[in-house]
Amino acid sequence: MAEYVDKDLRDTRFERVDLRGAQIRNSDLTGATFRGVWLSGAVMRGVELVDVDITGEVRNLTINGVDVAPLVEAELDRRHPDRARMRPIDPAGFREAWDVVERLWEATVVRARRLDPALLHKSVDGEWSFVQTLRHLVFATDAWVRRAILGDPSPWDPLDLPWDEMPETPGVPWDREAQPPLDTVLALRQDRMATVREVVEGLTDESLAANTEPVEGPGWPPPISFPVRDVLLCVLNEEWQHRLYAERDLDALEARPQARP
């Protein structure tokens, strides 16, 4: 085990670093930023957790002896009544959930169109721009619906945008710097959302309970079988979470003086 004792590592960047089992004692992490990290099984004792912002999947998080994850889930459902519909259990529920996704995203796009188009390529606090968010959702649909469920080994469009931490994969586009017009990306989105609509409209109890067939060839997800229900829940989660991120960033963009075209 490497040891760093009494070292000044301020502003050090760690990327794709394996820190499993690391021990951090009497150390100052003030202002540290964690993105795309796994903290499963992490234990924190004697910490000062003040003015901390956590966004991500939270389960079995115990703070001062209290499992706060159910409290967080209940509060999120209270704030967003449609959120509970993102956990459907039958084909009709998945169709209803996709109705909600279409309705909410339609309103978000209308809101985005009111801004100066240049702002839709701007990052807020290092997050994806609005257009990049849409491109990522195209990728998510291509990966989980067109590849995993429908069996297309290479469903990608050149504008697909994987998540930042994904290792480069042969055949999968990854042009983070592209700045296509909003209408170009929306046309892709409409095509992919229509594909999801077709899938959920065709769901039966049997097909929902089935597993996907492994898809060979490079890409994402890997060539293994997945429960169809889990795949569609993953798609719903992607759509729900990224719309919330987009709405959050639109708040910030609208506050900028040059927001209106």
UniProtKB/TrEMBL annotation:
Residues 102-245 form the DinB-like domain. This is Pentapeptide repeat-containing protein. It comes from Actinopolymorpha singaporensis. The lineage of its organism: Bacteria, Bacillati, Actinomycetota, Actinomycetes, Propionibacteriales.
